[in-house]
């Protein structure tokens, strides 16, 4: 049990569901986010991540399930819950005609700060987001990465304890993305609970303390990166290239006792070794399979491999 | 929070003023152009240029042609001013061909000779084919002149014969004095029949003056620009209101309304602020339209405070109407089209774009009185150019009530939309 679980969660989601007509956008999703934790919801576009965040921040009414913020049901006092939250929507919810500072001051005022406090906090945030020199420029003149930073800053004026980030790095260059991720790590260090949705594996791996894998509205697995990797049965994967079309791994004697097939294509077979075994032994067994292996690679399992194993498809597809 | 929301909207309008400026300048431009055209046309009617070609050139014809510049004759013509020039036939026809004249009147050679002998005489009238009204006025005037000459020929035949003898030099000049005395006595006895004339013309005044027509008796003098500007203002305040409340669509589109909803549970402050912003902008725009128009076209508003009260009521109505349309049609493109259509229809049907007297009676009598645009435009026009005692408060209250009802409808529609999980 990690240290997060010793604290009561700031956000608790249980059996959450939402349907649009016959389409079940979210079904029986549950997770918890603790103070000082970054929880990642990882899934492809259309997995239900934004719908989940929209229900948590009160933009959508759930069909079923329960959301609690700081131990109190959201439905009981949504305004009190909203005071604890900061929400960074996937779209840039900014006034492009206004300057960065004007946007921040405005959202600070709406979050309940008086004019003086809003201006002071704006200056602080603009400096932290490396935007102080462009504070008075209209947002419409900014690059995508700068707009993303302003979008993030607008949610932080009132120092929220719970930050909901819906794909905050979509469409920006790697350097801008690194800056934003670093900023979010800083928030975690200050004890902010962060719910972070993304479809970028690398982001989830690099940033999140725990990850929930969602697809087609359902939560398939959750845990730390290590826990998710262990679901594959070990910390090694073998990628075997060869003529695998027509191969029947089920019929190979003893194969399923030592390996689990993660992916099987005409040219590639990806398998996880089960148990604590010497990689050399594993490789020897794989090379002895009835299909000639042209090339073999040993690698650590990635989140994509976990996703592949859980959903049967590649997250990058 | 209201202050922050209003400051934000005003700042945005200040940074992007073009849409507001367009809707402000168009009515001023339209009123200016229309006013100029009709104003200028009235002035053109005042002066009719024509040529008189006197091919007879006798004492009588000289008297005739000089009568056009006679003061009494001018007074009787009223606002129509004749501007005759006396030319030879060639230069006169040349000037007519160059569109410098409305007509050429030719007094033919032998006119005096025939007239004094009570024989048939003929004037020649050559009208400018490029003009319609002024040559017709001259034709009518010539008709009156010939009728007069005919009357003289019939009633003064003996005197005309005596005159002919005096003028042609074969008569006794000592007879001229008694002749003139005789003519004077005859005219004196006819005076009771000639003055006042049996047939006259006066401009008809409407039996019940509600100030809805540009010719109504004016409270302080009719100003065509002002009359048009009030209608244009009624129409373009609808468009400007659409611009203000339509901003809610942009807030939805760019997700700022959703962001607001992540901070606050109730939408009322946000939408209420937009209504207040729209109303304030409408009042500002009305001040620019009517005040600026007043300065540009020399209009003096005779009842500014009642006009302000009426405009406040109208601004509330416009804000309510546009809020209801935004709430009813969530799609921005469809809503933009609907707003324009509704604004045009309300303005046209309400008599803002045309003088209401020119509209079909069924429309004017049954449809128009139901429309808030008419309540505003007709009351404002009546106050300024009709009966100065026209009550404005009932119209202002009706407009405000309609606005409040529409705002309540908009609130209900918004609540239903978001309760159903509509996208904010």
Main features:
heterodimer; A: 317 residues; alpha/beta; Rossmann fold; Alpha-Beta Plaits; 6-stranded mixed beta sheet; 4-stranded antiparallel beta sheet; elongated; B: 424 residues; mainly alpha; D-Maltodextrin-Binding Protein, domain 2; 4-stranded mixed beta sheet; 67% helix; 5% strand
Q: How many helices of chain B in DSSP terms?
A: 17
Strand runs of chain A, count: 14
Q: Can you list the strand order of the major beta sheet of chain A? A: 6-7-8-3-9-10
Radius of gyration of chain A: 23 Å
Strand order, largest beta sheet of chain B? 2-1-3-4
Q: Can you walk me through this structure?
A:
The complex is a heterodimer of chains A (317) and B (424). With 317 residues, chain A is an alpha/beta fold. Chain A folds into two domains: 224 residues, Rossmann fold; 68 residues, Alpha-Beta Plaits. Chain A contains eleven helices and 14 strands. A six-stranded mixed beta sheet of chain A has the order 6-7-8-3-9-10, with helices on both faces. In chain A, strand 7, helix 6 and strand 8 form a beta-alpha-beta unit. In chain A, helix 3 crosses helix 4. Chain A is elongated, with a radius of gyration of 23 Å. Chain B has 424 residues and is mostly helical. Chain B folds into two domains: 138 residues, Periplasmic binding protein-like II (D-Maltodextrin-Binding Protein, domain 2, 3-Layer(aba) Sandwich); 204 residues, no CATH class. Chain B is 67% helix and 5% strand. Chain B has 17 helices and four strands. Chain B is elongated and about 115 Å long. At the A-B interface, helix 2 and helix 3 of A face helix 1 and helix 11 of B.
Q: What is the secondary structure topology, with strand pairs?
A:
The complex is a heterodimer of chains A (317) and B (424).
Chain A: E1 11-20, E2 23-33, E3 38-42, H1 49-56, E4 64-69, E5 72-73, H2 78-84, E6 85-88, H3 100-110, H4 115-128, H5 144-153, E7 162-166, H6 174-189, E8 193-198, H7 201-207, E9 210-215, E10 218-223, H8 225-230, E11 237-242, H9 255-258, E12 259-264, E13 268-273, H10 279-287, E14 293-299, H11 303-311
Parallel strand pairs in A: 3-8, 3-9, 6-7, 7-8
Antiparallel strand pairs in A: 1-2, 1-4, 4-5, 9-10, 11-13, 11-14, 12-13
Chain B: H1 2-15, H2 18-46, E1 47-54, H3 59-66, H4 71-77, E2 81-86, H5 89-97, E3 103-107, H6 111-116, E4 124-127, H7 133-155, H8 157-168, H9 176-194, H10 224-253, H11 256-263, H12 268-297, H13 304-328, H14 332-349, H15 361-367, H16 372-385, H17 393-419
Helix pairs in contact in B: 1-12, 2-10, 2-12, 8-9, 10-12, 10-13, 10-14, 10-16, 12-13, 13-14, 13-16, 13-17, 16-17
């Amino acid at each position: 049990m990690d240290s997060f679980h010793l604290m009561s969660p700031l956000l608790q989601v249980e059996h959450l569901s939402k349907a649009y007509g016959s389409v079940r956008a979210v079904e029986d999703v549950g997770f918890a986010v603790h103070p000082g934790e970054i929880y990642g919801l990882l899934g492809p576009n259309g997995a239900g991540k934004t719908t989940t965040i929209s229900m948590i921040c009160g933009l959508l009414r759930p069909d079923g399930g329960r959301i609690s913020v700081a131990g109190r049901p959201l439905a009981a006092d949504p305004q009190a819950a909203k005071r604890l939250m900061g929400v960074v929507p996937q779209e840039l919810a900014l006034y492009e005609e206004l300057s960065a500072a004007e946007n921040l001051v405005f959202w600070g005022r709406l979050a309940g700060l008086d004019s003086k406090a809003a201006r002071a906090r704006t200056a602080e945030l603009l400096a932290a987001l490396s935007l102080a020199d462009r504070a008075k420029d209209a947002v419409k003149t900014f690059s995508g990465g700068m707009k993303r930073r302003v979008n993030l800053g607008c949610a932080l004026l009132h120092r929220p304890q719970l930050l909901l980030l819906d794909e905050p790095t979509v469409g920006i260059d790697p350097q801008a993305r690194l800056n934003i991720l670093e900023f979010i790590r800083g928030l975690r260090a200050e004890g902010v609970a962060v719910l972070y949705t993304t479809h970028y594996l690398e982001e989830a791996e690099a940033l999140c303390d725990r990850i929930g894998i969602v697809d087609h509205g359902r939560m398939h697995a959750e845990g730390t990166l290590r826990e998710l990797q262990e679901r594959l049965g070990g910390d090694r994967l073998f990628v075997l290239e060869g003529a695998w079309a027509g191969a029947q791994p089920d019929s190979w004697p003893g194969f399923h006792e030592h390996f689990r097939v993660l992916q099987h294509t005409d040219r590639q077979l990806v398998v996880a070794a089960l148990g604590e075994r010497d990689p050399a032994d594993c490789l020897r067994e794989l090379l002895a399979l009835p299909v000639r292996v042209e090339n073999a690679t040993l690698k650590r399992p990635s989140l994509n491999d976990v996703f592949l194993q859980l959903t049967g498809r590649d997250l990058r597809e | 929070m209201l202050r922050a929301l209003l400051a934000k909207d005003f700042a945005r309008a200040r940074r992007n003023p073009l849409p507001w400026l367009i809707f402000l300048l168009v009515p001023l431009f339209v009123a200016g152009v229309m006013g100029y055209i009709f104003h200028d046309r009235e002035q053109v009617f005042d002066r009719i240029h024509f040529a008189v070609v006197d091919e007879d050139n006798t004492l009588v014809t000289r008297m005739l042609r000089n009568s056009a510049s006679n003061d009494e004759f001018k007074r009787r013509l009223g606002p129509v001013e004749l501007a005759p020039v006396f030319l030879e036939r060639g230069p006169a026809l040349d000037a007519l061909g160059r569109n410098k004249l409305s007509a050429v009147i030719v007094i033919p050679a032998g006119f005096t000779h025939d007239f004094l002998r009570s024989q048939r005489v003929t004037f020649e009238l050559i009208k400018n084919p490029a003009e319609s009204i002024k040559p017709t006025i001259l034709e009518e005037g010539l008709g009156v002149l010939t009728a007069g000459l005919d009357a003289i020929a019939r009633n003064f035949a003996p005197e005309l014969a005596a005159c002919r003898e005096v003028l042609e030099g074969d008569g006794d000049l000592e007879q001229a004095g008694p002749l003139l005395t005789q003519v004077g006595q005859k005219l004196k006895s006819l005076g009771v029949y000639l003055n006042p004339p049996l047939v006259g013309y006066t401009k008809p005044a409407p039996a019940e003056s509600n100030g809805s027509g540009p010719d109504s008796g004016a409270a302080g003098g009719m100003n065509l620009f002002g009359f048009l500007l009030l209608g244009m203002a009624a129409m373009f305040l609808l468009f400007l209101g659409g611009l203000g409340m339509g901003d809610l669509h942009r807030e939805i589109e760019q997700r700022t309304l959703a962001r607001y909803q992540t901070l606050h549970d109730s939408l009322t402050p946000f939408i209420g602020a937009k209504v207040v912003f729209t109303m304030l902008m409408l009042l500002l725009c009305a001040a620019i339209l009517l005040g600026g128009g007043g300065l540009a076209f020399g209009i003096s508003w005779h009842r500014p405070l009642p006009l302000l009260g009426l405009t406040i009521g109208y601004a509330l109505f416009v804000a309510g109407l546009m809020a209801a349309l935004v709430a009813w049609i969530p799609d921005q493109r469809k809503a933009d089209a609907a707003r324009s259509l509704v604004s045009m229809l309300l303005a046209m049907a309400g008599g803002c774009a045309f003088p209401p007297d020119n509209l079909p009676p069924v429309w004017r009598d049954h449809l128009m009185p139901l429309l808030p645009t008419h309540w505003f435009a007709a009351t404002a026009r009546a106050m300024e150019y009709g009966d100065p005692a026209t009550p404005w408060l009932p119209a202002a209250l009706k407009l405000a009530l309609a606005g409040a009802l529409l705002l309540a409808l908009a609130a209900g529609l918004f609540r239903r939309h978001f309760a159903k999980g509509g996208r904010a």
